[in-house]
Structures are given as structure tokens and as C-alpha cells.
Amino acid sequence: QVRLVESGGGLVQAGGSLRLSCAASGGTFSEYAMAWCRQAAGKEREFVAAISWSSINTYYADFAKGRFTISRDNAKNMVYLQMNSLQPEDTAVYYCAGRHGAAATIHGNYDYWGQGTQVTVSS
Q1: CA distances (Å), origin 29, targets 7, 71, 72
Q2: For 99-120, what is each residue's pLDDT tens digit?
């Protein structure tokens, strides 16, 4: 059973940065494509970014392009999301997700999920 634990969320002012981390355990991490998704209050969960097992391929939602960077360290079983130029509309619970095989840009295609970490951006 794969377990994912996010950390790094918090309160930040508009224009600021945060780095989210996700620690994976219970599986062969290098076999999984990983992603970050988010869910704002009252809204549906949405895809943010994904990365292939080898880190060769990365994918971003349009709102994340140029501001967010996903990365992973297979030696440490970690995946990260660097978020810059944060805006109030980025306020949400951010989830780490994993799946066997190719990275996907649809959150419903991920099998394993963390409990989420809250990101709040004040104006």
C-alpha cells in the first residue's frame, strides 16, 4: 500500500512562494508517475502538475505554467512543488497523487492520494 504525506503548506502573501513536499512510502517509488492536484473550498479538485517516473516529462495546468515547478528525487522517495508568484486564487488544499505507468493530467487517473496540505494566499 502506497502512502503519501504532504508538507510545506501555510499562509503566504500574494506574490510569495512556497515549496510543497510529498514523502512516499510502501511502494517502489520509481515506478510511479506523480502529480499535484488542488481543491479550493466549494470547487472540484483540479490537476496542477505531473511528472513521469524518470523526471523526463512534466506537465502543467495552464494556470501553473511559468509559476510552478514539479520535481522529484527517486533516491529520497520525494516529490516537490515549487510555487512562485502565488495569488489568492491559488488558495486550496494541495494533494500529492501517484499512479503506475505514464503521468496523467486528469486527477481521476491517480490511484494513491495524500491527506493534503492547506495553502492560503492573502491579498
Answers
A1: 18, 13, 10
A2: 998 999 998 899 999 999 999 9
